[in-house]
Queue: 4 jobs
Job 1
Amino acid sequence: MAFDQLVLETYAPLHNAYFDQLSGVDLAVDTIPRMRLRADMSVLPDEIVADGPVPLGRVLQAGVDCYGNPTRARFVVFRRPVEQRSRTPEERSELLTWILTALVANYLNLDPRDVDPDFPW
């Protein structure tokens, strides 16, 4: 629960800064990545934020589910990979800021440095 709260707190300034553009986007936390990636992929799709081959977050675009119902766009943060890459709460917060900034930038088709001038490449 503390992780989910940290994700919400980290996302809030981004959501507020781009309120109109992000008003139709949901935010979710999943324990682990649940996606089919080919084992031979050396570069992941742009909508996936990763540490090497390990996805840390993903943008799911709005679409239609298997029942024909419309779905909203969603940012998904993967808890376990993030926790494994951060030893302290400060590191976790910094990593989440990086992930969420990259997800927002991808969704808005912006350079992450346009969203956060201090974005580390």
Job 2
Amino acid sequence: MDIVIASIALVFVFPLLLVVGILIRLQDGGRAVYAQKRYGQNGRTFKCYKLRSMVANADERLQEILATNPAARAEWEETQKFVNDPRITPLGHFIRKTSIDELPQLWNILRGDMSLVGPRPIVENEIAKYGEFYRDYCAVRPGLTGLWQVEGRSNTTYEERVQLDVKYTRTRTFTGDFMIMLRTVPAVLLSRGAR
């Protein structure tokens, strides 16, 4: 199912990816696609692809913000996100709200790094937030969509996100995955919990 749906979807969204990629390049000359090391099934690392929604030097800007703004550092440590992230470009706000930035992960699905449905892929410093539940996270491939995305996304706490991931990995079924995919459509169209 992953390979068939991802292949068909990639054919249909390729023109959109091309146009948005050109717009990203035109805004600041930086790369259109951003690759970041994420942790997947069995703790294996892979390059997770996204359309770049932030300024070209986002990692350096993050370190600067964390070093100079204690309130921002506390927010980042709690949620791994900023409510008002100053690194996001105007075009980036749009592609995040519409989840267009996630579409290159269809390639990750074809490579076998990810599935259509599963927990969101995490970075190294998030492993500690999962604690004993990291084992549950590693039991499945991370997903393009999942229970967290349809249950509130950024409107949930990080602890709630972990519990949703655990619930998914312990109760997943083919029918459940199909229902999550169906629920993803209105969640994306209504931009529920998107930041």
Job 3
Amino acid sequence: MAAFLAALLERPHIRPEFLVNGETPHPPLRFCVAVAGFRPRGPDGDAVFATPFLTPTLHVLGKNDIIVVEERSKTLLDVSENKRVEWHDGGHFVPSKASWRTFFREYLRNPTGSVPSPGSAAGSQPASGAATPDVIVA
């Protein structure tokens, strides 16, 4: 949905009912984050994604996602002109281990900057979402 909205805001006249008094209701987004994203099927998706969209987009995909599989995600990647793809070891969820939280924080602060991949900080932690962190008592 985030990518659909980003693409629609780039070319709002594709859907006249989206306009307010003939004008776009919002300027194009500065960036977009799509977790387990895919290109919607049907006339709306076909119209909005007829040409690639340009909004810088972070695509976060789970290597073990059985709901939105890689082939389905590729349909959105193919129409995302300015993309960054990050894979996590889990399934159909937003990764939450420390390296990912740090990555998301830094990415949201500077989406077009040089933010290191969350996978580059390899450690001995289990896959994101596979274990509950220990509680630290001070």
Job 4
Amino acid sequence: MTRTIHSLAVMLLLAGTIVFYSYAAEKTLPPPVEKVLSHEWAISPQWQNATYTFHKEEFINPRIVEEMQGPLSDNGSQIISVNVHNANISNQFFSEVRVRSSQAMPFVYYTKSESEFGYIFVGATTTGIQVVHTMSTAGGSGIFHTLLFFIYTDSEEISFKEEVTPVVLPTLTLIGSLPLGIKFAGTISLENDVLTVLPSKEFYQPLPQYSGGVILRFDD
């Protein structure tokens, strides 16, 4: 009797697996959408010499990136620019920066209670547009993935000292974001100013905005 029940369970499991993969095979995603972004960004000529970066020590604090990304429930950007040089050592954005180095680029993150937020540097275009892949959790099993696009700009502020004068500051500026959904398992690459984002080939997992993926060429 026990062997019969076991055999039936195995048969049902195999049948379910076959049905699942047959269903997944029938589902096909459209080809990736190809886009060209032509724009001359006002990028600071000193962007490669920034003290704090996404890809090496000293890392930009992930809490700053989280604040600039904003809540997942909101549309559009609220915090556009941050003086990273001051913010990275401020009490406002203080957190213990941690690093996992199991991938080609380090995963830079911080934790708070049961949540975690971090990022991986994807790369930079020849003109200085920096692409960052963020991942965040809120205590559940879901991992929310987003691509953020940053540039360094030269901003001016008023300096109140012996003389009141304008001062030029290198400022990290958010110029765009692309949601990738929950449990993104696809691929992201940036080569020769071409960003390629593709969904997983093993599972039927369309992307929120471009279900079959997107190929974005930066033509600055």
